[in-house]
Write a structure and sequence with these properties.
Elements: E1 3-8, E2 14-21, E3 25-31, E4 34-41, E5 44-55, E6 59-60, H1 64-71, E7 83-95, E8 98-107, E9 110-125, E10 131-142, E11 161-175
Antiparallel strand pairs: 1-4, 1-11, 2-3, 2-11, 3-6, 4-5, 5-7, 7-8, 8-9, 9-10, 10-11
């Protein structure tokens, strides 16, 4: 079986997250700088090895004050911990084009095993002759499991930011 290398197409990839604010609405954020590589057997992603990294200083919520807070030691501490890293350890088929991706997620030098949902969008050859593969990846983590412990409480005793973070990655890879 031949090994095929795939590189992330950043122009067609998004890394986003949602967190409940005051437990009444969601705040959406994204990361603007990220990278990923995958190795597969031919074009078969069933045994793919995937490494995905995100630059924490690239976080944006379209609010400068909130973004500065997220980059601070209360959350990512982007200066000390410049990257979030995910490395796959397995992929299980759940249904037509649906998979469970297992791997190790590292945030602030804390590594935990996580399971993510994957919807495979398919593999196509684009107008330029490049073979591309697309995936929608989603999952939930508890931010406090990774040392993002800041917790605010309103005057009435309500929680400012939920512990649960929902992640969504729309990823497109180019066959090398």
């Amino acid at each position: 079986m031949a090994v095929t290398k795939w590189a992330l197409d950043p122009a067609h990839t998004e890394v986003t997250f949602k967190v409940r604010h005051l437990m009444i609405t969601n705040v959406t954020g994204s990361f603007k700088k990220f990278n990923s590589e995958a190795e597969t057997g031919d074009d078969d992603f069933s045994k793919a090895k995937v490494i995905f990294t995100v630059e924490t200083a690239s976080v944006t919520t379209d609010n400068d004050q909130r973004d500065a807070h997220l980059k601070s030691d209360d959350f990512f501490n982007a200066e000390k911990y410049p990257r979030i890293r995910f490395e796959s350890t397995g992929l299980k088929k759940k249904g037509d084009n649906e998979y469970e991706l297992e791997g190790n997620l590292t945030i602030r030098d804390v590594t935990k095993a996580v399971k993510l949902n994957v919807e495979a969008g398919g593999i196509v050859v684009d107008a330029y002759g490049q073979t591309k593969a697309g995936f929608s990846v989603s999952g939930k983590i508890n931010r406090k499991d990774f040392g993002l412990n800041w917790s605010g409480v309103t005057e009435a005793g309500g929680i400012v930011v939920s512990d649960e973070v929902r992640m969504v990655v729309e990823a497109q890879y180019i066959k090398q």
